[in-house]
Each structure stands twice: as C-alpha cells, then as structure tokens.
Design brief:
The chain has 252 residues and is mainly α. It contains nine helices and two strands; from the N terminus they run αααααβααααβ. A two-stranded antiparallel sheet has the order 1-2. Helix 1 runs antiparallel to helix 9, helix 2 runs parallel beside helix 9 and helix 3 runs parallel beside helix 6. The longest helix has 27 residues. The model has no long low-confidence stretch (mean pLDDT 87).
C-alpha cells in the first residue's frame, strides 16, 4: 500500500536530516569541526519539519478511507451496469439499484480530500510518468451509458416475442432516466480535470521534496544550500498539499 503524500514528504525531510550526517561522515577530518555545527542546525530543523508533516498522517488515513468508499460504491454501480442483461430480474431491478446508488456516490465524491496516496512511480522515477486512471465523474458517466446499451441488448436477446414490447417499453423508461443521470454526471467532468491538476501539484510537491533530499550529501554546494531550501519551501509545500480535491482518479 502506498504511503500518503504527507507521510512521503515527512520521510523526505527525515532522510534529508540523515543525509546531512551522511555528508559529515564523508568529508575530511579537518573539515568536520566546521561542518558539524551546520549539520546540527540543519538536522534539528529538518527533523522538526518532518514531524510537522507527520501529523498529516491523519489526513492520509482519511483520504484512503474516502477513496475506499468511492471505489466500493463505483464497483457496485459498475457491477449493476455489467449484469443488467443477465436475466429478467436483473433487467428489472439492477437499473433501480444503479439509480439509487447515485446520490450516495455524489456525497462521497463531493467530500473534499486533503491528501492522496503517493505515486512512487511518478515521484521516484527519472521520467515523469502520467497519472493513471479516469476521473470518477467520467467513469460514472460511462457506467450509465454502458447500462443503457445493456438494456437494449436484453430487449434484442429476449426469446419470447410477446415480451419484447413490454421489455422495450421498460427499457425506454429506464434508459431515459439513466441517460439523464449520465448527462448530469457529464456536466461535472470539469471537476475531474480540476482534481487532476490538484493531484499533479500534490505529486510534484512530494517529488520535489524527494529529489532535494537526495541532493544533500552529493557535494559541498548542495550540502550548504539544499537543506535551507527545503526549510524555506516547507510552508509552500504545506499550502500546496492542503488545496482540497473533490473527485479522484479511479481504477475500478
């Protein structure tokens, strides 16, 4: 399970503090008395900042819980859509269940998320990968349109000719409701785009902290300037992380 972005950034600050001591071990003995005071100051401040970011683990847990609820409801809706043409009972009742789940999903999608799972493939790789998954509102829109197609598949596959007019009438009524709901969710797809941008900011923030902590022990110049840069950037990182995100990228 991936760590949340707050936890990931906290770990980066802890590693930056440890890397300050790693640089001290690497320098010549004659330079150690000069470097030691800087290491003490840097490591204490970086550890303190790391502890502050560690408090965000509560937001990480809440974010995971919110996403788990969203995935559960989306999975149920997708299941209703996939099996609408599985039989008469499914044809009659699964569209109703699908519609009934929609308000519940809306509630969980509109709960703002103040954290995300860190995407290690994006944060740690040299190449900047893309964020995988579809926006939740776009996914729901697709689920409704898929359900409409399944309704008419059932009508077409009905073996008894006498049932076709009845099932066709039911399919028309259900499809109008499902298409209307699908259209409503389509109107909310711009929230997916906005949330994608917020997610990119969060992952890029975690990536920046991760890359900077790696630089600390590499050279004297980086040792001198990177820890202060991490310290100065900490308030900006915090502001960027708490930008609320409405929806989620989902892989169901």
């Amino acid at each position: 399970m991936n760590t949340g972005v707050f936890t990931h950034i906290a770990h980066s600050y802890f590693k930056a503090a440890g890397n300050s001591w790693l640089y001290l071990r690497r320098v010549a003995w004659a330079l150690k008395p000069i470097i030691l005071p800087l290491v003490l100051v840097y490591s204490l401040i970086l550890l303190a900042i790391g502890l502050i970011f560690s408090l965000g683990i509560i937001l990480d847990w809440l974010g995971k819980l919110t996403d788990a609820c969203r995935r559960f409801i989306l999975g149920m809706m997708k299941n209703q859509s996939d099996y609408i043409d599985d039989g008469l009972f499914s044809f009659l009742f699964r569209p109703i269940f699908l519609v009934a789940l929609s308000p519940l999903l809306i509630v969980f999608l509109l709960v703002p998320k103040l954290s995300s799972d860190s995407m290690d493939s994006f944060i740690t790789n040299e190449s900047s990968g893309t964020l995988d998954g579809s926006g939740a509102f776009k996914m729901v829109n697709g689920i409704f349109f898929h359900a409409v197609r399944r309704l008419y598949n059932y009508v077409a596959d009905t073996a008894y000719l006498l049932l076709k007019p009845i099932t066709a009438a039911v399919a028309i009524v259900y499809s109008l409701v499902l298409l209307a709901l699908g259209f409503c969710f389509a109107l909310l797809i711009p929230l997916d785009w906005l949330s994608h941008f917020v997610e990119f900011i969060r992952q890029s923030t975690a990536r920046a902290a991760y890359r900077l902590q790696q630089c600390v022990p590499r050279s004297f110049i980086e040792f001198v300037f990177v820890p202060p840069l991490l310290i100065v950037l900490a308030p900006l990182f915090l502001v960027l992380l708490i930008i609320p995100k409405i929806t989620s990228q989902m892989v169901v």
